[in-house]
Amino acid sequence: MTALVARLAPVARTIAWPALLAGALACAAILVLAPLAHGPSLAHWPGFGALALCAGAAFLLDDAAGTTVGASPTSLARRRVLRLALALPLLAAVWAGSLWYATSADGASFGPDTRAGLSLQLGALLALTLAASAVALRVMPDEHGGWTGTVVPFAVVGAALALPERWALLAAPGGAAWDGAQQRWAVLLAIGLLTLAWAGREPSPSTRQRRRTAQASASADASSAGAP
Predict the structure, then answer these.
(1) What is the arithmetic mean of pLDDT over 185-198?
(2) Burial 56-74 (b: 16+ CB within 10 A, else e)
(3) Model pTM?
(4) Fewer CB within 10 Å, N- or C-terminus of the chain?
C-alpha cells in the first residue's frame, strides 16, 4: 500500500484538479436543474452535464513529464493509466449521483431506464475528448492538449444537431431512433478508445531526439534573450 501511494502521489500532484472539479460542479448543477427546464424533451437532455464533465476532464492528460518521455522511467501509457485511475472515480461518482437525481424526478423526460444509454453517451464523449487531447500532445508536445480536447465534445454535439434523422445521435428515449442512436454512440466510444490507445504509444527515438533538440534550442534562445 505504501509503495502504491508513493507511486500515485507524484502523479496526483500534476493533475489539473481545479479543471476537473469545475467540470464536476457544473455537471452536477446542470443535471440538478435539467428537470426544471421547459421545452422539448431534448432540452432536458442530461448530456449537457456530460459536456461540462468532459470539458473539465480535457486537461487530465496535460503532464509536464509527457514532453520528456525519454527522461522518465515510467512509460507514457502507464503514466496516463495512472492519471485516469486517479480521476475517473471522481468523474464516475459525480455523474452517477447527478444522473440518478435527474432521472428520478417525477415526469422526467429521461427516466431511470435511460441511465445506461446516457452513460454510454458520456463514455463516448469522454473518450473522444481524451483522445483529442492525447493526439494534440503527441503532435504538439510542448502545448496544453486540454484546450484541443475541450472543443471536441461541443463539436460532436453541434454536429449531432445537424445530422439527418437517419443518422441522429440525439433522440428522445423509447423509440427506434433512440436505439439506433445508441449504436452510433457505441461506435464513437470505440473510435475514441482506439485513438486514445494509439496516441499513448511511446514516441519513436527520432521523435524524441527532435523534441530534445527543439527544447534545447528553445532554452538557449530564452537564455540569450534574458542575457544583458
Answers:
(1) 96
(2) bbbbbbbbeebbebeeeee
(3) 0.85
(4) C
